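Box 3.1 A note on notation
Throughout this textbook, protein chains are presented in two layers. The first layer is the amino acid sequence; the second is a token string describing backbone geometry. Keep the layers aligned when reading.
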Amino acid sequence: MRRFLAIAVSVKGGMTILVKGDSLFFKGRPNYKVPCKRRFSASPVEAMALSTRQMEAKKMQAFSADVGGRVLALVNSILKQNAITANVDPDSLLVDVGLTSMDMVNLMLGVEAEFDFTIPQSEITPENFQSVQTLQRMIVNQLEPATAA
């Protein structure tokens, strides 16, 4: 059984590109057919689902990296307020860098303000506030349902 993938894309100027099976069709201005060099083995539904999953994964990676950078900036601003100069890496323990318990409370409030959400009581644990990386993971997990919509 041979599977065909059909995708239509509208292009500026009234031209439509249609990939159907092993051929590429241009409809609109010049109307001609070009053989495709790439064979598609997946069904159209499988191909679209794979493409969607890949795009969502890339979006989540970018979002996660953005969250990490913003948390790192918050930590550095708290350290600057305390006149502490330290090199903070994503996996550096925040206590070892110089944050006190009051600084952790300020960090928690800063995270809530920066990301516009309230950290659930169950997530306010020492494990989640160990490093920028653990904070990043907790924030992404909390905001993940909102970003998927």
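The chain has two domains: 6-35, 53-148. The first helix runs from residue 44 to 81.
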